[in-house]
Amino acid sequence: MKNLKAFLSALGSHLSSESILTDPHECNAYGTDWTRQVANVSAVLLPRSTDQVAKILSLANELEIQIVPSGGRTGLAGGAVASKGEVVLSLSKMNRIDSVDRLSKTVRVQSGAITEAVHEHCKQSGLLWPIDLAAKGTCEIGGNLSTNAGGVRVIRYGMTRKWVTALQVVTMQGEIIELNRNLEKNNTGYDLLQLIIGSEGTLAVITEATLKLTRLPRFKNIFLFSVTSLEQMARLCEEANFGPFHITAFEFFSQKCLHTVQEKLKRISRIGDTAPFYVLMEIERSSNDLSEVEEWLGKILEESLVVDGSLAQSSEDEKASWGLREGITESIAVTGPVRKYDVAVPVSQMVPFLTEGQKMFSRMNLSIDLYLFGHFGDGSPHFNLVKKPDCSMQEFSNQCDRFEIELFALLKRYGGSVSAEHGVGNLKKHWVTYSRTNRELELYRSIKKAFDPKHLLNPGKILDI
Amino acid sequence: MKNLKAFLSALGSHLSSESILTDPHECNAYGTDWTRQVANVSAVLLPRSTDQVAKILSLANELEIQIVPSGGRTGLAGGAVASKGEVVLSLSKMNRIDSVDRLSKTVRVQSGAITEAVHEHCKQSGLLWPIDLAAKGTCEIGGNLSTNAGGVRVIRYGMTRKWVTALQVVTMQGEIIELNRNLEKNNTGYDLLQLIIGSEGTLAVITEATLKLTRLPRFKNIFLFSVTSLEQMARLCEEANFGPFHITAFEFFSQKCLHTVQEKLKRISRIGDTAPFYVLMEIERSSNDLSEVEEWLGKILEESLVVDGSLAQSSEDEKASWGLREGITESIAVTGPVRKYDVAVPVSQMVPFLTEGQKMFSRMNLSIDLYLFGHFGDGSPHFNLVKKPDCSMQEFSNQCDRFEIELFALLKRYGGSVSAEHGVGNLKKHWVTYSRTNRELELYRSIKKAFDPKHLLNPGKILDI
Questions:
Q1: Strand B86-90 and strand B106-110: pairing?
Q2: B462 and A CB contact within 8 Å
Q3: pLDDT one-digit tens code per residue, B104-138
Q4: With B197 labelled, which of A110, A276, B158, B207 sits at a CA distance of 20 to 30 A?
């Protein structure tokens, strides 16, 4: 990249030498994420302060250096990949977590703080930042905000964007902007805070945030259900919406997923394995008296709303229940090469969409196994395609491509999303037109231009300019 | 306005004659809101469908006709005022409310639906759209969305923007865009739905929305507390944050407010009137067993966290409690001319901010009475300034202006907002710089330009171009 030498040399008077990495091997580790794309990184910067970030960006803007902001790099869409010689701006050294404010139920953090560390910190005050996802031990708050992370408790709490009362961001021009400054109410024009959340580092670099917290659940319980059909699952979900509790997770998986978890990870289901679909439902209650919940379960069983249903009676039971749902990805990984689709439809369309999706899959007669699971209560299913042993990698890839075209056409008919929670990054850019119109993409471009007219910030992510 | 005749004549083939008003007296009723500004309206259009809205806007764009979108016109910032000969586009005839979807807990409505009608409709399914504000019997969903309405239950539910899963909007170019299509999860680029919410009709016209609903509270209770100081109020709020319930309202008012409500509206406080501040706290619980709540109240009283506290024992008690808080505006209105400031600071800054604000008011030695009340738990106090009888209107206005300058300077120091929930409209445009930086306003202009390059949609609202 031209000007790189001048850029790094100018930074030398603002950053200490250990904050600037240039060894190619060391650098490339910062240029990829869980998509395992090949990195090509010119340099890595590890600022210690917002002022340093501002200095980096204003110099980069002046010298036309492309910057890729980077957090825990657990993304699944290539949003933090640097593969074209960009400079990586890692926020990982900015990981301060302030004291919890118990009056406003908020906590101020720097964007390099690890999500799980924030959870642990808030827990000591009886509070919860309710974004809970598999990568929480590695991912960072800045990444959660940039991708508007989801996770398993969206049905109760919604996405990341609902749990933020302030952002400190630095624009590509090096200006530090404090957005919303921890105000619960602030109707003074367009909500730039919401615009930045989910923009995958293409508009500005998030350096700090004030996170809104909620009470830790007082009492939790876990149910496992088996059901005869998707229709029955939807009826159960609707019934549970009005049960004597709050649903905090309503996850589903197919019999094929259960069998793989049983076989590959030796996990045990206490409600058998002969039904076509299974539901893990977690609930929250304010009382430890189980009688109302047991009565509700009795009614569900009596009315044959499920094949079988069971309430976990111990923390071992609870772990075993979650173990079935959470073991799916691992058990599939050891089964064979996999292609994953993280899509969404309106919750009310889950039954017809999944029914058509399965029929379409059968009709195509592919040498592929389909594993269907995900967040039923959020309208967010995962289609995992796994290669069968007798199929070549090339053939697997071709068949997945064929399936993808059909799946996306179906999604478009249902007004669905080609990326429920993983974002667009560089991997899903070409899919976006299935979920967004040309006019929307045109508005995206105008917004991008307003923030970053030289297209230097996370170039090539979300859309090509 | 030039081209008006051509515009109305072209519309004649798309709208029925009763959908086009041109009688000046009839028209002007549609050009003002609760700010009572003088209207000057060229024509009023009352479309019956989104297609008609699209036709109106594309023709207006072509002929350069300025359009003011209009709902229930209960705004307090002049966001729906048409005072410069604009054409008013009223959505009031588009008020369809679809069946509630009990699986996804959503309801689709047209933007002319009255907020209270939506509440009543959803209540029949045991569900709640939790935006609850004084104007609910008159205001419309489109207005709630355009202003990101707040209200008395923000502490529990947040603002309007958290309770929307889809918007149908029409751009000034006449394009119909379906934003987010009722998806709980949809991370495919910048969130234009959130950008439109709170944009006060300056970016696009909202024609339909899918509203996210929540369960109706199972059991509610109301407390009244008297406290010796703002510090004590903050400690009570923090303690209540961790009580055996969810807070659904934490409202406060000064002794002066209480005395006026007692005197002017003959309402009675069951906890006396000798303390400087009062709190109305509403809570939600999942059980009708009061023992835990009474135990909590006992502890609060025993530890002298309040002067006095009382739990309403009947629905009459509850009404009487809310009557004190809700009567303030009415009792002030009959006391004298009033200037109102609806501001916000971080909740954690309420005590120092209000303390300084009161001291500043005393120091200024004005011929004005200050009534202090509002949403303590959201950091959103109302400063109402009321003229004393011996002060002239001119002097009152001058003194208010002097106070305003000091108040806004104080707000700026606390990183506060000059408009917590009422929006900017045309009244607060010149205040916005206290809460937003020039760079933010520059970004606003770029965004406005992307949507409405000719500046025809709600011109002069939020900011001058």
A1: unpaired
A2: yes
A3: 999 999 999 999 999 999 999 999 999 999 899 99
A4: A110
Task: Give exposure, A34-45, as e/b (b: 16+ Cβ within 10 Å).
Answer: bbebebbbbbbb
Among all chains, which residue has been given the structure tokens 């002319």? B112
Length of chain B: 465
CB contact at 8 A, A193 and B444? no
Structure tokens at A425: 């990054």
Q: What angle do CA B154, B262, B351 make, to 5 degrees?
A: 45
Burial of residue B404, with CB atoms counted within 10 A of its CB: 0-12 exposed, 13-18 middle, 19 or more buried: middle
Q: What residue in A sits closest to B430 (Cα-Cα)?
A: A188
- Whether the CB-CB separation of A52 and A13 falls below 8 Å is answered with no
The whole-angstrom separation of Cα A104 and Cα B241 is: 9
Q: Are A15 and A45 in contact (CB under 8 A)?
A: yes
Cβ proximity of A267 and A327 under 8 Å: yes
Neighbours of A365 (CB within 10 A): 8
What is the average pLDDT across A388-393? Answer: 94
Q: 3-class DSSP state for residue B253?
A: strand
Place of tokens 């890595």: A44
Evaluate whether B352 touches A188 at the Cβ level (below 8 Å). Answer: no
User: What was the pLDDT predicted at A1?
Assistant: 67
pLDDT tens figures, A396-436: 999 999 999 999 999 999 999 999 999 999 999 999 999 99
Q: Is the Cβ–Cβ distance between B385 and B370 less than 8 Å?
A: yes
Residue B159 with chain A: CB contacts under 8 Å: 184-185
The burial class, CB within 10 Å (0-12 / 13-18 / 19+), for A388 is middle
Instruction: Give the C-alpha separation, B234 to B236, whole Å.
Output: 5
User: 3-class SS at A366?
Assistant: coil
**Interface residue B415 vs chain A (CB under 8 A):** yes
The pLDDT assigned to B289 comes to 87
> Per-residue b/e over B322-351, b at no fewer than 16 CB within 10 Å?
bebbbbbbebbeebeebbebbbbbbbbbbb
Among A145, A156, A175, A185, which would you mutate to test the B interface (most chain B Cβ atoms within 10 Å of its Cβ)? A185
Whole-angstrom Cα distance, residue B188 to residue B465? 30
User: In this structure, what token pair is assigned to residue B152?
Assistant: 């008395």
* Residue A344 DSSP class: B
Specify the length of chain A in residues.
465
User: What is the side-by-side order of every strand in the sheet holding B106-110?
Assistant: B106-110, B205-212, B164-170, B176-179
Strands (E) located in B15-136: 20-21, 41-45, 67-70, 86-90, 106-110, 127-128
Provide the whole-model pTM: 0.97
pLDDT at A104: 97
CB pairs under 8 A between A and B: 267
